[in-house]
Amino acid sequence: MFISEKEIEIRYAETDQMGVVYHANYLIWLELGRTKLIEDIGYTYAGLEEQGVLAPVTDLSIQYKQALRYGQKAIVRTWVEQHGRLRTVYGYEVLHADGTLAATAKSEHVLVKKDSFRPVSLKKIDPDWHEKYEEIKKAPDGVRN
């Protein structure tokens, strides 16, 4: 299993009146982590879009564990949890700089054609990318590939 890491400097604008990172900002950080994972393995979201393909989120869950605050750094760890014919599930951990767990999350995505929004397989669009996901995804029962 391959895990990508993205460091985030927490900005004042990302916090609420209590000085805690506002919950919706985690969604943005997950996207940054997912984008970094894709770039780390040699691909880009922009490349998909150039082919007329989008990757909408079909499901998302976040479990908040410990608050992050302005002035701290967060680390977003991202991996491919599952990858099938039409769906890819990404797993995430958001950590404090010292490694303390701040949140866990999963997001599910389906590739669709931009013009029709009909689902399409990554294997059909980019067989090499599909094979890379198969190679790096989390093995069943948490066993490392």
Helix content: 10-25%
CATH top-level class: Alpha Beta
Mean pLDDT: 95
Measure the end-to-end span.
Answer: 6 Å
User: Radius of gyration over alpha carbons?
Assistant: 16 Å
CATH superfamily: Hotdog Thioesterase
Kindly report the oligomeric state of this protein. single chain
Q: Could you name the ranges where pLDDT drops below 50 across 5 or more consecutive residues?
A: none
Number of DSSP-assigned strands: 7
Keywords: Hydrolase
Pfam family, one: 4HBT_2
GO molecular function: fatty acyl-CoA hydrolase activity
Family: Belongs to the 4-hydroxybenzoyl-CoA thioesterase family.
Protein model, in words:
Belongs to the 4-hydroxybenzoyl-CoA thioesterase family. GO terms for molecular function: fatty acyl-CoA hydrolase activity. InterPro entries: 4-hydroxybenzoyl-CoA_TE, HotDog_dom_sf, YbgC/YbaW. Helix content is 25%, strand content 34%. Strands 1-4-5-6-3 form a five-stranded antiparallel β-sheet. A two-stranded antiparallel sheet has the order 2-7. It has helices spanning 25-40, 45-50, 122-125, 127-136, and strands at 4-9, 53-54, 57-64, 73-83, 87-96, 101-110, 112-113. It has one domain (4-138): Hotdog Thioesterase (Thiol Ester Dehydrase, Chain A), CATH 3.10.129. With 145 residues, the protein is of the alpha+beta class. The model has no long low-confidence stretch (mean pLDDT 95).
